[in-house]
Amino acid sequence: MKAFDDKEKASEKKFVLAAEEEFKAEARRNKKLAGWAAELMNKDADATKSYVTEVIMADMAEAGDDDVFRKLQADFTEAGVEVPDIALRNKMKALMQEAREEIAAGE
Please, what are the domains in the chain? Predict the structure, then answer.
């Protein structure tokens, strides 16, 4: 019975660590995404710093990426910047992969 309990605890710990890494990767992706978007919208350094915080906070609205996607699309529209939905989704996906790889590499 102890072996089963130990295995269960190890499995739970592995799940928690994976969830923590995914959370860190999402936050890193959002930071990179906000920097990219701010550049497209010609924001200065101070505005970019604030915008990064806005995007990170937007991700707390609901589970998944749709909250961030909607915020960026609304901001692009307001700024008069055209970014097709598929281009934004692809950028989000690419930056998420990049963030996961950095986290896995210990960066």
Answer: 25-104 (1.10.790.20)
Phi-psi region of 43 (alpha: psi -120 to 50; beta: other; left: phi over 0): beta
Q: Read off the tokens for 23.
A: 């959370």
First-last CA distance in the chain: 39
Give which of 75, 39, 41 is closest to 55, Cα–Cα: 75
Residue whose entry in the numeric block shows the structure tokens 């920097």: 35
From residue 50, alpha-carbon distances to 4, 7, 54, 57, 105 in Å are: 49, 45, 6, 11, 28
pTM over 0.85? The answer is no
If you average pLDDT over every residue of the chain, what do you get? 88
